[in-house]
Amino acid sequence: MTPFLVYLPPGARRDSPDAVFVADRFAWPAFVFPAFWLLFKRQWIAGIAVFILQGAMTMAGGLADAALAAILLELALRLLVALEGPTYLAHRLEKRGFTLAAVLPAPDLKTAEAMYGATLDDLANDPALPLPRLGPSFGPGQNGARAIDPANPGFGLFDTYGSR
Question: What is the rounded CA–CA span in Å between residue 21 and residue 1?
Answer without folding.
Answer: 15
